Amino acid sequence: MAYHIYLTDDDRFLLDLYSVKFKNAGHDIHSFNGGEELLAQLRKGEKSPDAILLDIIMPGIDGFETLETIRKENLATSAKIIILSNQGQDSDIERAKALNVDGYIIKASAVPSEVLTETVRILEEKKDS
Q1: What CATH number is given for 4-128 in this structure?
Q2: Model pTM greater than 0.85?
Q3: Which one in 31, 52, 78, 84 has a CA-CA gap of 20 to 30 Å to 19?
């Protein structure tokens, strides 16, 4: 099944790398350079993505602020939200859990194919629940 995925990261190289990996697997992916761009798209109220992959450390609005805004404004309520970050400290993981993320992937520990596999696994769980 093809999924509609939003990827948010300030690293253009990683955005391109993950975008190619997901597109080659048949998924529809839209990339955003930061939280402001993602929130602007979500506020348009168009078709909600199936998943949002969100970096934590970004200039402007960081990933946690973006996630808090998504929750507060009830944006993309049906989307699975997955943190995709190099921040792997317990405090970051606990904060993400408190914000009800559906997954947490540490970029430095996962090659793009593993990110794709884990994202699809999380999305497939959604269908079964």
Answers
A1: 3.40.50.2300
A2: yes
A3: 78
